[in-house]
Amino acid sequence: MKTTTLDIICVGELLIDLIGHEVNTSINQTKDFHRFLGGSPTNVAVNAARLGLQSLLVASCGQDGFGDYALRKLKANQVNTSVIRRLEHTPTSVIVVSKSTDTPDFIPYRQADGEIELAQLPDALLETARIFHTTCFALSKQPARDTILDGAQRAAALGLQLSIDLNFSERIWPNREEAMTVIKAYLSNNPLVKVSEDDCYRLFAAFKSEDYIFDFFHDFGAKTVCLTKGKKGVVLSDTEEGLITQKALPLEDIKDTTGAGDAFWTGFLYAGLEGFGWEQRLTVAQRLAAIKLQNVGRLPEDIDIKQLLA
Predict the structure, then answer these.
(1) Given pLDDT bands bounded at 50, 70 and 90, which one contains residue 306?
(2) How many C-alpha atoms does 134 have within 13 Å on its Cβ side?
(3) Taking a C-beta distance cutoff of 8 angstroms, is the pair 123, 132 a contact?
């Protein structure tokens, strides 16, 4: 019988987020930026550790001050950093982000984040885990792309549940045709899929119906697709259970949307590991996202899991 010591392996972008201090102000007009640990899989790894899960991040960063800061923050949050690669001549990637109560604007300065190699994902590591999670962002650049696709195939063969946040942006991945091919390759392993309305608009370069979106990703091989719609709630499509819809939680004091999707998906994966059904998973996910929306930069230190699940 397989012995697991890791709940989740997160593979992908380790970034420094420089988030604007002024709310709903363009990057052009923002005067001050505050530094935060960022990157979607990084956020999921940190959030998962906050929820008491054993999480490991597979990523790369520079041998520089930002890299030192990132490693210090990860270790402080009990994330396993044993396979993070430090690059001497390539700096840590940085994303400049506007602070927004809606979809934030951003400027990427990508350097070390895509330098993830096969040696960082040995079978011996995969065999110890339950979930293999990554992002569209991470798949957009080599050698990380081939590393992740190879690792995902091996993880699926070993019985891990795969997961992906399809956080597509043409600024990150201008070649949509290539992106579709790579996404199809990953989805052939039947991962849990999280995608937002904004992601879909950017990916398809047009507004598409929910039926179109779900059919598209189901046809690629994903049985379960979760479409987040911001203030309009969330819809999950499962090829066996059908459609499940939940309204958004009413929130008045939204401070920052950056990382809310990562908090949502962490809650969803956490609830799945706890054996909850689809509706309960969505409820936990929305509650964790609501906490993030009311805090800038990251989840607060004192999350009460029992209250979250009540």
Answers:
(1) low
(2) 33
(3) no
Q: What is the pTM of this model?
A: 0.92
Compute the distance between CA of residue 305 and CA of residue 310 in angstroms, rounded to an integer. Answer: 9
Diameter of the chain by CA atoms? Answer: 57
Nearest of 42, 41, 39, 19 to residue 30 by alpha carbon: 19
SS3 label, residue 200: helix
Q: How far is Cα 14 from Cα 143, in angstroms, rounded to an integer? A: 15
Enter the tokens of residue 212.
């179109």
Judged by average pLDDT, the poorest of 10-14, 99-103, 109-113, 244-248 is 99-103
Residue 129 burial (CB count, 10 A): 23
Quick one: tokens of 258?
């950056």
Look-up of token digits 């607060």: 300
Q: pLDDT per residue over 187-208, tens digit each?
A: 999 999 999 999 999 999 999 9
Burial of 284 (0-12, 13-18, 19+ CB in 10 A): buried
* Pick from 276, 298, 239, 261: nearest CA to 165: 261
Amino acid making up residue 100? S
Cα distance between residue 22 and residue 10, in whole Å? 31
- The CA-CA-CA angle for residues 114, 118, 119, to 5°, reads 115
Mean pLDDT, the chain, whole residue set: 92
* pLDDT confidence tier of residue 291, bands split at 50, 70 and 90: confident
- Taking the C-alpha atoms of residue 223 and residue 193, their distance in angstroms, rounded to an integer, is 9
Q: How far apart are CA 281 and CA 52, in angstroms?
A: 17
Other Cβ atoms closer than 10 A to 92: 25
Q: How far apart (Å, rounded) are the C-alpha atoms in residues 304 and 286?
A: 15
Task: Tell me the C-alpha distance between 172 and 239, whole Å.
Answer: 31
Residue of 168, 11, 178 whose CA lies nearest to 79? 11
Residue range 145-198, pLDDT digits in tens = 999 999 999 999 999 999 999 999 999 999 999 999 999 999 999 999 999 999
